[in-house]
Structures are given as structure tokens and as C-alpha cells.
Amino acid sequence: MIHLATPFEWKGLTLRNRVVMPPMCQLSAMGRDGKPNDWHFVHYVSRAIGGTGLIIIEMTDIEPDGRITDLDLGIWSDEHIPAFRRIVTEVKKHGAAVGIQIGHAGRKAEHVETPVSSSAIPFGPGFPPPRALSTSEVKDMVLKFREAARRAVEAGVDTIELHGAHGYLIHQFHSPLINRRDDEYGRDLARFGVEVIQSVKSVMPDDMPLLFRISAVEYADGGYDLDHAIELCRRYREAGVDMFHISSGGEAPLGRRRPGSHAGYQLPMARAVKQALDVPVIAVGNLDDPEVAESAVANGDADLVSVGRGMLRDPYWTLHALQALGAETRAPEPYKVAFRRVRSAMS
Ligand code: FNR
Question: For ligand 1, is residue 24 a contact (CB within 6 Å)?
Fold first, then answer.
């Protein structure tokens, strides 16, 4: 039995296998209007043809100033819906499920004169200081997340992922290093994330799972550790998250602690969250060796495995990995001849 090849079901989400394409910004919205174009269409559809189980569209922002750069995707108006629907519809035709990562860059917005954050603390020395959102602006931001999710649902996605990792806005609220507010959003570091989750859930179909990407540890000196992340996940789970996508860092320049560069360096974090909360998790980070990906699922470290850079190198990563592991590969009909284990293309 090849674990990576087994289908997965969670609420209304059905995947043909355990392989996920994680969100990866393409910096290719050339109209600077946040709308996906032919680049994005080919990029995502080719990974669906390549056998991927779940494709998560890159970080897509809830307002123009929430973009990391002007070349990022956004979903801040109903006019954005058709361009996303075109991609979603075609990806599904090729058997993949499709999600979208919704987020806000906060103080990591690079093309904004004065970015916003939980507190007026810059990302690091030499970075522009952000402005702290007022309490009523925080409440407005929650509604913007809800509207973005509503549009994503209208575009036909199978799931939504909230970007609560890598030092972006939700992370800027739940990090004790970054959030120094004295209102209700500072006294309870999880409150912003909880309200975003609840309001996003209110516009999602009941059986559509909500994913949440979280940095399980911070690498800045004095940053939070796994225990804090698990407590956050507990609160977020109670608020409605159905599955966590476990990454790390991104909140500030690196301190003494460094992320690993070895295979599966974030797997122990994924396993810890899964075990503590008995919740499905997606693991990510240097998992593009098929044997490593297979063992992550087989050993119970994670339910699903994300392969990022591996899929940038090879849109057919999933077909190749399943073939290498000895599983039956379901290549698209016109490509089947190339995936047969025979030498002659004429046979
Ligand atoms: C990323 N990553 C990322 N993460 C995220 O949550 N939202 C995003 O939009 C992006 N954008 C992005 C762009 C590019 C070009 C890369 C390479 C990465 C991080 C990504 O999802 C993943 O976590 C890492 O790449 C680690 O996985 P791999 O590449 O080791 O499989």
C-alpha cells in the first residue's frame, strides 16, 4: 500500500491522494489589479494535470494594501471573482481539489507607504515602522476577511486556507513579540484570529473545511515556541478550523535559532500539533523526496504532504512520485503512454 496515493476525505473535501501544492506567490499579477491571468491559469492547471490532490492558490489579499507587493493576487472586490472561477473550474476538471489562501501582509507590505499591523513595531531594524490599527479598524479587517472568503466560495473553491503564518497580519496579532496592544485584541492574542475564523466560517458552506496555516515556532530571539502555537491552534480549532498547515518562522529577521534545511525539518512540529489536538495536519518543508513524503504519511506525522519548490521544478511531481513509489499512476489519457513501464512508445 502506498500511503501517499490513498484518497483523503474530511468533511465535504475529497482528495484523490495526499499530495498538496502549497500556496506560492507568483508575483505575476502584471495588471497590478490583483487579478490572476494566463500565467496563473497555466501554473495551477498544469499541477492539476500533474496529479496533485489539493492545489492551494497562493496568498490572495483582502485589500490592496494587504499585498506584499503590487504583483500579488487579491480578492477585494466582486470583480475579481470571474478570473479565479476560470482557474478553479479548470483545475477541478483535471481531478484536483482547489483551495485559496486568504491573507493580509500587515507590516510586511512592501509597496505601501505606511503598512498597518497590530502594533507600531517594524519587521526589523531599517524597515519602515507600521501604524497600529485602531480597534474599529481591526473589526473592519475581520469583515474584509469574511468578504474575501465569500468571494472565494462564489469562485467555486473546495476549501479556504487562512494565512496565519510567516509573520503576516494574523501572525502579527498572535505573536507576543509583535502584538503590544492594550485593547481586547492585545489582552487576548488569539482574539483577532478567532474572530476572523468565525466570520469566514459564517460564509462557508457547512461541509467545507477551513484550513489555517500557522508558524509553529518563531526564529527571532525571544520568539514563541511550539507550546504557544499549540495553545493558539486549540483556540482556533474551537473557533472552527478543521485542519492546520504547519510551517514556521517569517515573523522577523532570524535570531540565534535557525530553521533546518534538512528533509522534513518541520515534520516534528506537524506531528506535535496533530497529537496534541487530534486534528488533521498538512506537513510542509523539504518533503520532495517521494520516500520522505510517503513516510510522513505512513508514520502518522501528517495526513497530507505539501510539496512547494519540488512542484515548481516539476509540475508532474505527483505522477512522478507515485510512479517512483510503485503506485498506480493515473496520468491523463493523452499522456498515459509516457507513464507506462515499457520502453517502446509504439507498443
Ligand atoms: C512560498 N511560500 C508561501 N507560503 C505561504 O503560506 N503563502 C505564499 O503565498 C507563499 N509563497 C511562496 C512563494 C515561493 C516562490 C516559495 C518557494 C514559497 C512557502 C511555501 O508554501 C512552502 O511552505 C515552502 O516553500 C516550503 O516548502 P518546500 O518548498 O520545501 O516544499
Answer: yes
For residue 254, the 8-state DSSP code is -
**Successive 10-residue mean pLDDT values, the chain, 347 residues:** 97 98 98 97 98 98 98 98 98 98 98 96 92 98 98 98 98 98 98 99 98 98 98 98 98 95 97 98 98 98 98 98 92 90 57
**Pairwise CA distance, residues 311 & 307, whole Å:** 6
CATH of segment(s) 11-316: 3.20.20.70
Distance CA 103, CA 77 (A): 14
58 Cβ inside 6 Å of ligand 1: yes
Q: Do 92 and 129 touch, CB atoms closer than 8 A?
A: no
Distance 263 CA to ligand 1 centre (A): 15
71 within ligand 1 shell (Cβ under 6 A): no
CA dist 221 and 197 (Å) reads: 29
Cα–Cα distance, 275 to 5 (Å, whole number): 23
- pTM more than 0.85: yes
159 forms beta bridges with 99
CA distance 150 to 132: 27
22 CA to centre of ligand 1 in angstroms: 6
312 by Cβ neighbours in 10 Å (0-12 / 13-18 / 19+) ranks as middle
Nearest in space to 35 (alpha carbons), one of 3, 70, 66: 70
